Amino acid sequence: MEMIKLDQIRKIYRNGTVANDNITLKVTEGDILGVVGANGAGKTTLMRVISGLSRQTSGDVTVGNLRPNSRREHTARLISFFSQKTASIQSQRAFEVVYFTGIYRGLSRTEAREQAAELMEYFGLSALSKRYLNELSGGQEKLVMLAGAFIGNYPIVILDEPTNDLDPVNRWQLWDLVKERNEKYHTTFLIVSHNMSELESIARTAVIVHEGRVADAGGIQSLKEKYSKGYRVSLKCDRDDVEGIAREIGLPHTIDNHSEVIVQIGSDQIADLLPRLTAFAPKCEIRIYRNTLYDVFHAVREESIHA
User: Fold this and answer.
1) Burial letters for 86-101: b for 16+ Cβ neighbours within 10 Å, e otherwise?
2) d(C-alpha 49, C-alpha 57), whole Å
3) What does pTM read for this prediction?
4) What is the CATH code of the structural domain delimited by 2-225?
5) pLDDT in tens, 223-267
6) Structural domain boundaries in the chain
7) Strand pairing category for 285-290 and 231-236
8) What is the CATH code for 229-290?
């Protein structure tokens, strides 16, 4: 079932900036979609259009069987949107923020109180429940707002840069909760993030946005197969050795930070290269990686720039 359908979406701001340019996209129910793009690519604008917080200049948005701008109240019952620029009420206590979000979403007082308490405990915030938001750290405040994003078990959750300001433990707690809600309730997630490794570990599909357009979209593994060059070989060594090692390898390469030789090779080349790499072992730290979502993003972006 299609949970979200975008058809030729254009969003042009009053100053003439084209934020979204003819975007067509479908998101199926229960998907976890990673939204990838450089700063200013139009990712957040697109999320706001989907949620009905911003009106598209042209094109159609369908959420379930509703159009956000024609039935915003009904769409608000389908989508929970965590924004990277959350306008929090600093004079409210942490528990109240989550609790009253649940009330706004139609929970009874008992349901809102129970779910808020569970989420506060999950994110390690129980001891901070009575503190005002302006008494919390930036990371703690973000956790409170994330707890608010999950209350009510909405069928669609949009998370825009959710892990900024979070420590590693809280990041993985968040991703575990995303997995749990997706498996238990079939929740559809749209996650905007610059952290490619995190997205690759949680998302099933990805859309790559470049200068307001969809450069490519699909299953992450399919995208990796489409753009993959096989393996990335990294040789980290002393600066004095890096140029000589690069010449000895005899393959196209890049040099990063004057101390790392990076070689992209196909799957058919790895067997021949491995014996040669052993000669550099005394001088280098050698690592071999499968190509990642970051490599896909870089390849798609370069292709779009030179198109």
Assistant:
1) bebeeebbbbbbbbbb
2) 10
3) 0.85
4) 3.40.50.300
5) 988 887 678 888 898 888 888 888 888 888 888 888 888 888 887
6) 2-225, 229-290
7) antiparallel
8) 3.30.70.240
